[in-house]
Input
Amino acid sequence: QVQLVESGGGLVQAEGSLRLSCAASGSIFSGDDMGWSRQPPGKQRDFVARITRGGRTNYAESVKGRFTISRDNAKNTVYLEMNSLKPEDSGVYYCFSSLGPVTSWGQGTQVTVSS
Output
């Protein structure tokens, strides 16, 4: 089983930036994808970004051009650089690690963007 611990959330003004980190430990497999989803207040959890171990990325349309996902395989850590933040980016950001049908989730970190 994979354990995931997020950090880096907080309160930021619109157009500001934040960098989230997610450290993975436990049963890390060489082929796992890692990524981020978010859950705004009162809404469902939605996909934000994903990165394969080889570095291929994909993003939700709403964050393309503003967010950048990266990973350090040696540290089993994935990052989410968030720029030009908007109030609608607010929510709990969850890190995930997936391999085939198995997905592990972190406990989440709160991001609040004030207008």
Notes: The chain has a mean pLDDT of 93. The radius of gyration is 13 Å.
